[in-house]
Amino acid sequence: MSDMHRLLKTMQQEGSGVLAAVIEVEGSAYRKAGAKMFFAKDGTWSGLISGGCVEEDLSYAAEAVLHSGSPQVVTYDLRSEDDLGWGQGAGCNGSIRVLLEPVHMHPSSIWQRMLTELENNRPVVQLKRTGSGEATVLYTPEGKRIGGNGAITLSEVEREKLVSLQTDKETAAVITEGGSMLIYECIMPKPKLYVFGAGRDAEPVVSQAVRTGWGVTVVDPSPNRLEAGGFTEADERICRHPEGWLQEHSLPEGASVLVMSHRFEQDQRVLQLLAGQNTSYCGVLGPRRRTRRLLGTDTIPGWITSPAGLDIQAEGEEEIAISMMAELIQVRRAVKQVPAVLEVV
Predict the structure, then answer these.
(1) Is it the case that residue 3 has pLDDT exceeding 90?
(2) To 10 degrees, the CA torsion angle through 285, 290, 295, 297?
(3) Which helix (H) or strand (E) holds 16?
(4) Signal peptide location in the record (predicted)?
(5) Helices 264-274 & 288-295, crossing angle to 10 degrees?
C-alpha cells in the first residue's frame, strides 16, 4: 500500500530529505521488503520500517546520506536476543537490508512523476540499479518508460532472477556478479473505498480507512452528516443519493464498497446498481437475513459479503469499524498485483 503515496506527499511538502526502504529481509522482521520511511532535513521522520529497533540509528545514517548526496545500503541483524546485536533483545529472528537515498522533490524529479502517476490512479513500476551503473527508471505496468535518470539494461541472468522473485512479491532485489544491486518494485495507488451512507457508525470506518492508507469517498444526501467529524478526513464527500450517483458513475476497477445507509429501499437499489461492477469487496451492514430481503432471494451471491466485517464478536460502532477494516485489509492483502513488466523491459 499506500505508504509510498503518503510519504511522497510528505516529501513534496519538505522538498528534500532521505528515503529509507527495506529492500531485503532474511528470516522474520517487523515489516516486509518494500516498507519505507522518510527523514526530513530537520531530523524528523515519517513512517516506520521496524518496531522502533533501528530507526534512531538509521536517522544518523540518513543524515550522513543527506550530506554526502550518495545512496547507502545498511544491514541490521535483528536475530540477536541480547543487547550486543541490533535486535536489542527483540529476538525478531531476521535481518533487514535498508537502502537510503537522497530525495530532491522538484517538478521534473522521478519522485514527482511517481506521485503524479499514483494520484491519477496508475501503478508505477520502479527498476533501480545501485553501485556500478547507478540508475533509476520508472515504467508503466506494460513496460513503457515514463521517467527516470540513466538507463538500465538487464542481462538474461538478471532478468531471470528478478522474474522468478517478482512472481509473488511487490519488491524484489538481487545482488549482481559485479556487486551492484538490482531492485524491482511495483508501487500501487491508494486503494479506493466507497462508503454509501453517512450514519454515525460510518464515521469511525472512514477515519480508520484514511489512517490506514485508503482513498475514501463518502456518498450521502445529508450535507449536515457529511460535515460531521470523521467524514471530513475523506478524500471526497458527495452530497447525493447513492443510487442517483451510481446511475451516473462507474466505480474504478477493484474498488471496495461498504453499503451502510440504514435505508432499506436505498440499499436495495444500490446493490442492484453495483451488480456487474468489478469490485474487489462489497460489504453490507446488518444481518444476513436483511441482505436476503434486500436481494429478494434466499441466496446471497459471492460478490457480496454479509454481514460486513470479520466475526470478532464486535460490539458498538468502534469495534464494528475495526472488524470491517480488518476484513478490508485481509481482502486487499490477498490480491497480488504484480505486473510482468520485466518480460518486456
Answers:
(1) no
(2) 140
(3) strand 16-27
(4) none
(5) 70
State the amino acid at position 239 in one-letter form.
C
Q: For cell 436495495, what's the residue? A: 268
Among all chains, which residue has been given the C-alpha cell 475523506?
A: 234
Does residue 128 sit in the same domain as residue 180?
Answer: yes
Measured CA to CA, the distance from residue 138 to residue 181 in angstroms comes to 17
* Measured distance CA(94)–CA(259) in Å, rounded: 42
Write the CB contacts of 111 (distance below 8 Å, at least 6 apart in sequence): 8, 11, 103, 104, 105
Of 114, 180, 164, nearest in space to 342 by CA = 164
- 256-259 vs 236-239, strand pairing mode: unpaired
Here the cell at position 213 is: 492508507
Mean pLDDT is lowest, of 18-27, 65-74, 320-329, for: 18-27
Q: CA nearest 283: which of 302, 269, 265?
A: 302
Number of domains composing the chain = 3
Same domain, 16 and 75: yes
* Centroid of chain to Cα 263: 32
Average pLDDT across the chain, whole number: 86
Domain hosting 51: range is: 1-105
Residue 210 has pLDDT above 70, yes or no: yes
- Relative to beta strand 256-259, strand 281-284 is parallel
